[in-house]
DNA sequence: CTTTGCACTTGCATAATGCAAGCAAAATTA
DNA sequence: TAATTTTGCTTGCATTATGCAAGTGCAAAG
């Protein structure tokens, strides 16, 4: 299920073994925008991930220390997922993906607006957003 | 084989549909380091990609405008693969992957050296390397 | 003119993905 | 309190992708 042995010691390869698929970074994206999500929240995202795939990705992301599960305050039926620091550290990467995609694909308006913010002061944007996320988990 | 219909208009999702797998970015990595590679060069990389997977990834990367095939000067038996501008534009993303991985995984020494360069002046590093790549395709 | 190198293809076994349905515990409603 | 709904998954099964090994066709070298 998860990766058993490393293909190589290349950092790109190691990273891809953790989140190199079509779904994992979408989960990270949702958590970056919402700060915390329930299982159901992820299912509501536009890409319509299958429930079994979602469960398996959440598990490997947790096993790899990128997200954590915790109790929902106020409901034992719900589970809260949040980014760890390791997950928050994916923010610069996510920003670059957005910037790349902006150049070659059509984006929705709200994302364009966010990116114009980013382009004004990339470092500042990342620092602020990372801080917001950090506060939400501490 | 390739992606037929978009899952959503999210740039992260669109990007993942192009290179969101365990192999595509390794091909891009090889091209960023070597500027141009033959089919055999890719096979020599440490991760030991299977020949059929390599062929299929090269095809979808080409279909998506990230790499180009061209004749090898001096041998009709060989084929040269190179990054397009769209592929070169993945450089900032690749740099961030390296920086993220550096924080959480062990890297080989030569890559560490490169990253200490990056950390001195990220923008400068990217600009210089992107320019080198650009020159090699023009 | 035979052998080797190169860029793939093909066949087949195994693994991952996707869809629909099911299920147990908690929460809500009646 | 009993019935219904919500929530977070799991299960079964069909489809697709991956991985391995062997094979093919053309170019080049000997």
The topology string of helices and strands of chain A comes to: HHEHHEEHHHH
| Low-confidence blocks of residues of chain A | none
Our count of domains of chain A comes out at 1
Q: Which CATH C-level class of chain A is it?
A: Mainly Alpha
Task: List the chains of the largest interface with their residue counts.
Answer: A-B, 43 and 43 residues
CATH topology annotation of chain A: Arc Repressor Mutant, subunit A
Strand order of the largest sheet of chain A: 1-3-2
List how many beta strands of chain A DSSP finds.
3
The helix fraction of chain A, in percent, is: 55-70%
Rg of chain A (CA only) = 16 Å
Instruction: Tell me, rounded to a whole number, the average pLDDT of chain A.
Output: 95
Biggest sheet layout of chain A: 3 strands, antiparallel
The CATH homologous superfamily of chain A: Winged helix-like DNA-binding domain superfamily/Winged helix DNA-binding domain
What is the beta-strand fraction of chain A?
5-15%
Going by helix content, strand content and strand pairing, the class of chain A is alpha+beta
In CATH, the architecture of chain A is Orthogonal Bundle
In DSSP terms (H or I, runs of 4 or more residues), the helix count of chain A works out at 8
- Tell me the span between the first and last alpha carbons of chain A: 31 Å
What is the oligomeric state here? homodimer
Protein name (chains A, B): Helix-turn-helix transcriptional regulator
GO molecular function, one term (chains A, B): DNA binding
Keywords (chains A, B): DNA-binding, Transcription, Transcription regulation
Domain HTH hxlR-type (chains A, B): 10-109
